[in-house]
TrEMBL record:
Gene: thiI
Pfam families referenced in this protein's UniProt entry, alphabetically: ThiI, ThiI_fer, THUMP
Organism for this UniProt entry: Staphylococcus saccharolyticus
Protein residues bound to ATP: 183-184, 208-209, 265, 287, 296
Enzyme class: transferase
Protein name according to UniProt: Probable tRNA sulfurtransferase
Catalysed reaction, written as an equation: [ThiS sulfur-carrier protein]-C-terminal Gly-Gly-AMP + S-sulfanyl-L-cysteinyl-[cysteine desulfurase] + AH2 = [ThiS sulfur-carrier protein]-C-terminal-Gly-aminoethanethioate + L-cysteinyl-[cysteine desulfurase] + A + AMP + 2 H(+); [ThiI sulfur-carrier protein]-S-sulfanyl-L-cysteine + a uridine in tRNA + 2 reduced [2Fe-2S]-[ferredoxin] + ATP + H(+) = [ThiI sulfur-carrier protein]-L-cysteine + a 4-thiouridine in tRNA + 2 oxidized [2Fe-2S]-[ferredoxin] + AMP + diphosphate
Family indicated by similarity: Belongs to the ThiI family.
Record-listed E.C. numbers: 2.8.1.4
InterPro entries per the UniProt record, alphabetical: Rossmann-like_a/b/a_fold, ThiI_AANH, ThiI_fer, ThiI_N, THUMP_dom, THUMP_ThiI, tRNA_STrfase, tRNA_sulfurtransferase_ThiI
One annotated GO biological process: thiamine biosynthetic process
GO molecular function annotation: ATP binding; CCA tRNA nucleotidyltransferase activity; tRNA binding; tRNA-uracil-4 sulfurtransferase activity
Length: 407
């Protein structure tokens, strides 16, 4: 392996003035966590970029793969780091060019941050090009469309030589943007909605409404697995599982059949609101998408949203279903989400739910019973799991998971 470092470029952090230090430190923590339990690397943080020093035992491909999933990283390049000596530059580019295919074309691209360096940009470009041409008969220069572009960065501390630039996920480091509560069902949409806000630096705790025996342990396992996949990217996530059966039964007793779904959503929202305050979060996130189903018309959203003053974020609001599916596939949640399961709502869903619920009517139906106590009881009986990437449902955690806990 000729590469001894990975150069990690920050995303939008550069724009964030005074908060910069906090952002960079958070990104460093997130990177370190993402690389557990890999071996043979050392993370070094600078103001404008990060370096991961690699030893012989490092699995570079795996490290790069994991870095591409960390939000706040724009791109990653495997680099050769050398002292600022002319001879070492030639030696390194020859080493690189040895790997080029027969009759390939190349271009040298120099960036000179250290203006005191022996040669200026143009001279260095020409010298390095000359050395390669002399050493390899079969290679030629092509500045417009080269097969290989060798980049040489002459910086204050060292010279970095590289070719490849791997795109990162962009966004902001998770942990820099406050906390939200994600309403996580077993469907396709809500995991994607969660990821969309995490990409903007926000931490997420998840809440799931579970109605045994109407919904099985399998449905719960599915939500746990979806949470685990999200945790692969962002570290451990708290999952709050709410016992929802009694509330659903009561709704079905007192609310007109066409309005039970609206009411169910409102109760979910009310419980989420209590939890938001308990966990010191500042918004609720869900996977709602305008017009997708009966509960997601504007009038429905109005009636459901009315029970809370907490901001409800709907990152998927205007997306087409096929775009959501594409995102779910990229995220790795799609295959889990499409497994059959009983949604606590579909089971109680009437054949003919109202699509344009009359707000006054919902309030009137619900008004015949005092739901506060039931809501309180549901909240008191929440089961909270901490799900990390190694989480196994049999509760046996691997050593790696324990290491992560310590971290
Ligand atoms: P999803 O694919 O996320 O299930 P959906 O298109 O099936 O979405 P609905 O079932 O109407 O839509 O739910 C809308 C949103 O309400 C979901 O995206 C989710 O955020 C929330 N939600 C629905 N059911 C539950 C549940 N049992 N627990 C937690 N949140 C839920
Ligand atoms: Mg659903």
């Amino acid at each position: 392996m000729y590469y001894d470092h990975l150069l990690v470029r920050y995303g939008e952090l550069t724009l964030k003035g005074t908060n910069r230090k906090m952002f960079v430190n958070q990104l460093k923590d997130n990177v370190k966590r993402a690389l557990i339990p890999l071996q043979g690397y050392l993370v070094k943080v600078k103001r404008d970029r990060m370096y991961v020093e690699l030893t012989e035992e490092a699995d570079m491909e795996e490290i790069i793969k994991r870095l591409t999933q960390v939000y706040g990283i724009k791109s990653i390049s495997p680099v050769i780091k050398i002292d600022k000596k002319e001879g070492l530059i030639y030696q390194s580019v020859i080493q690189l060019a040895e790997g080029f295919e027969q009759n390939a074309t190349f271009k040298i691209d120099v960036k000179r941050v250290d203006k005191t360096f022996l040669y200026d940009t143009y001279e260095l470009q020409r010298n390095v090009g000359g050395v390669i041409l002399k050493h390899f008969d079969h290679l030629t220069v092509n500045v417009k469309q080269p097969d290989h572009e060798i980049k040489i960065e002459v910086r204050l501390d060292a010279i970095y030589i590289y070719e490849e630039v791997v795109a990162g996920s962009g966004g902001l480091p998770v942990g820099t943007g406050g906390k939200t509560l994600l309403m996580l069902s077993g469907g396709i949409d809500s995991p994607v909605a969660g990821m969309e806000v995490m990409k903007r630096g926000v931490t997420v705790e998840a809440i799931h409404f579970h109605s045994p025996p109407f919904t099985s342990e399998k449905a719960k396992d599915k939500v746990i697995e979806l949470t685990r996949i999200l945790a692969e990217r962002v570290g451990p996530i708290k999952l709050h599982i709410v016992p929802f059966t009694e509330l659903q039964k009561q709704i079905n007793r007192v609310v007109h059949p066409r309005y039970t779904m609206t009411s169910t959503r409102r109760m979910m929202m009310r419980i989420s609101d209590v939890v938001v305050h308990r966990i010191d979060a500042h918004a609720i996130v869900n996977g709602e998408n305008l017009g997708q189903v009966a509960s997601q018309t504007l009038k429905s959203m109005y009636a459901i949203n009315h029970v809370t003053t907490t901001p409800v974020l709907r990152p998927l609001l205007t997306l087409d279903k096929e775009d959501i599916i594409r995102k779910a596939k990229e995220l790795g949640t799609f295959e889990i989400s499409i497994q059959p399961y009983e949604d606590c709502c579909t089971i109680f869903t009437p054949k003919n739910p109202v699509t344009e619920p009359d707000f006054d009517k919902v309030e009137k139906y619900e008004g015949v019973y005092d739901f506060d106590e039931m809501i309180q009881k549901a909240v008191e009986n929440i089961e909270t799991l901490i799900i990390d990437r190694y989480y196994k449902n049999d509760k046996e955690q691997s050593t790696d998971a324990l290491i992560e806990d310590l971290f």
